[in-house]
UniProtKB/TrEMBL annotation:
<comment type="function">
    <text>Involved in repair of UV radiation-induced DNA damage. Catalyzes the light-dependent monomerization (300-600 nm) of cyclobutylpyrimidine dimers (CPDs), which are formed between adjacent bases on the same DNA strand upon exposure to ultraviolet radiation. Required for plant survival in the presence of UV-B light. Not involved in the repair of (6-4) photoproducts.</text>
</comment>
<dbReference type="InterPro" id="IPR014729">
    <property type="entry name" value="Rossmann-like_a/b/a_fold"/>
</dbReference>
<feature type="transmembrane region" description="Helical">
    <location>
        <begin position="44"/>
        <end position="67"/>
    </location>
</feature>
<dbReference type="GO" id="GO:0003904">
    <property type="term" value="F:deoxyribodipyrimidine photo-lyase activity"/>
</dbReference>
<dbReference type="InterPro" id="IPR008148">
    <property type="entry name" value="DNA_photolyase_2"/>
</dbReference>
<dbReference type="InterPro" id="IPR036155">
    <property type="entry name" value="Crypto/Photolyase_N_sf"/>
</dbReference>
<keyword id="KW-1133">Transmembrane helix</keyword>
<feature type="domain" description="Photolyase/cryptochrome alpha/beta">
    <location>
        <begin position="28"/>
        <end position="161"/>
    </location>
</feature>
<keyword id="KW-0456">Lyase</keyword>
<dbReference type="GO" id="GO:0000719">
    <property type="term" value="P:photoreactive repair"/>
</dbReference>
<keyword id="KW-0238">DNA-binding</keyword>
<dbReference type="InterPro" id="IPR036134">
    <property type="entry name" value="Crypto/Photolyase_FAD-like_sf"/>
</dbReference>
<keyword id="KW-0274">FAD</keyword>
<comment type="similarity">
    <text>Belongs to the DNA photolyase class-2 family.</text>
</comment>
<keyword id="KW-0285">Flavoprotein</keyword>
<dbReference type="GO" id="GO:0071949">
    <property type="term" value="F:FAD binding"/>
</dbReference>
<keyword id="KW-0234">DNA repair</keyword>
Amino acid sequence: MPPATASPSPAHPSRVRVIHSGGGGKPGPVVYWMLRDQRLADNWALLHAAGLAAASSAPLAVAFALFPKPFLLSARRRQLGFLLRGLRRLAAHAAARRLPFFLLTGGPQEIPALVRRLGASTLVADFSPLRPVREALDAVVGELRRDAPGVAVHQVDAHNVVPVWAASGKVEYSAKTFRSKVSKVMDEYLVEFPQLPAVAPWDREQPEEVDWDALIDRVCSSEAENVPEIDWCEPGEEAAMEALLGSKDGFLMKRIKSYETDRNDPTKPRALSGLSPYLHFGNISAQRCALEAKKRRHLSPKSVDAFLEELVVRRELADNFCYYQPQYDSMSGAWDWARKTLMDHAADKREHIYTREQLENAKTHDLLWNASQLEMVHHGKMHGFMRMYWAKKILEWTSGPEEALSIAIYLNDKYEIDGRDPSGYVGCMWSICGLHDQGWKERPVFGKIRYMNYAGCKRKFDVDAYISYVKRL
Ligand code: FAD
């Protein structure tokens, strides 16, 4: 039997945070402010917003605000093109469902005015742990509290299988400590998504027509230093589902079988899911990927378990770190032992020192490292194993750990299609600052941070084959 006071929201109650309870305002539409979860399917924030709208017989609208510099627009043509082309498809799907989609090109500061113009009762935002998004949300909430206190503001973690604040209340030390917490509650959250509740027809201001081609041209060409778009990965929800389940090449259809054995071999990139661009832009829900992977566990239990470990534990551990540690992208966010050992060795003599420009142009003595840098620059996605080697060598070849971290993050965010993501900041922090790792045998430059070298790579995979593969890209 349903509880007597059933919530109108189909989302798990602890997935939702009431940031401002509002109340006292007139009933009105619900506006979903889409941030990181750029999809209509399998989206708990949209489901929550639709549930609230349905319960008060109100209509629902979706709004997306392009962030100004330095956050979103420090993205290059590569990431902005993917984002906007994905949104263009999303807008078409929304229109087909008669769901108004408001694209605000003047930034998040336009959200409060839209909410007021539409006479909204509630603003629902999805969740990102990154500083610029949190600051934008705080500013919007502040303005609404002041100028439209009746409007409620809710936040929904639609990105993680286990909502970040429910998984743990603090920065987790390692995957081990986080895994045990997440596994305990996983079944509660890893459930099928319901249908979107039916809402009242839209009867307010219509969204302005967007000239997407002109917008893409304008936004992408406004960046002086551009990085070209990639053509091997179509943006949008359908392409994301195709990458997961497509009968021709979907990761979970056949390729998953070799994930366990081959995922650390950069000469076999197809052993990986290739889902990170879609997960980063929220074109697909990690929960959908996990549900579908679990259904296919019989194909290869070890591979599915390894995939779920990366997709859920490691990815959500990155959100945990960025959420609870505001200095997630600087050495001050590292643990004391790591900072100390890095500083103890900061003045050690380096055999090679390269500038950021030399690194960016792949001008080092190490052909393997150069290949990984070029894979990222030209293909837009470096193999996961090479990302660790790549970042650790930046620590070895620059003047100090702080500089190494900032160069690694700069390059990662500039060229990776999945860059500017919690997993990117945590990946760089893991490689350079020992985050979520343990101390290892002390050695020059690295101190107790885990070391990786060319000889180790040579033992693991065919280095020359990888270098040739990158040359052909
Ligand atoms: P798969 O192996 O198929 O993994 C499936 C999904 O699991 C990934 O899409 C990702 O969401 C998650 N995942 C896999 N490995 C990790 C990991 N180590 N940490 C957290 N989540 C993981 N990931 C990004 O999404 N964006 C980045 O900018 C980014 N930068 C990185 C930088 C460095 C220095 C390192 C060491 C790692 C970085 N990662 C980043 C994590 C990881 O390398 C990528 O997520 C992965 O290579 C993406 O390819 P895939 O989807 O084919 O991976």
